[in-house]
TrEMBL record:
InterPro entries: DUF2794
Record organism: Henriciella algicola
Name the UniProt record assigns to this protein: DUF2794 domain-containing protein
Domain of life: Bacteria
Length: 116
């Protein structure tokens, strides 16, 4: 006779973005979609940080990552924006201040190859 084993779910607490933080992030993401700079996003919730990844195309590494790392809140700030190479573009204590990096810069793809 077959036995039924219950599924084991990971019940450890996860870090997530608060509703107001998500609202600010999705506002910026919507502007990027309208400008043709973003096409997709992904959200990850982990034990030590939360990630909102923005993709320029569907099947590639994220172009930008917005991370919430509560462990760093008393030092550099809990919020970080990373570029596609992993470089820190902005870090701070307030999500709206950190997201200003998307308003002050023009993110354009530079073509250093052969002219098309």
């Amino acid at each position: 006779m077959a036995s039924i084993t219950p599924l084991q779910f990971d019940k450890s607490p996860k870090i997530a973005f608060h509703r107001t933080e998500m609202s600010a992030i999705l506002d910026i993401y919507g502007k990027m979609v309208m400008a043709g700079q973003a096409k997709d996003y992904a959200i990850g919730m982990h034990e030590d940080h939360a990630v909102f990844a923005i993709f320029r195309r569907h099947a590639e590494a994220p172009t930008w990552r917005i991370e919430k790392i509560p462990e760093l809140r008393n030092r550099q700030g809990a919020f970080v924006v990373y570029g596609n190479q992993g470089q820190v573009l902005k870090r701070g204590h307030d999500i709206k201040t950190v997201l200003k990096v998307f308003e002050t810069r023009k993110f354009e793809v530079l073509n250093f190859g052969k002219p098309s």
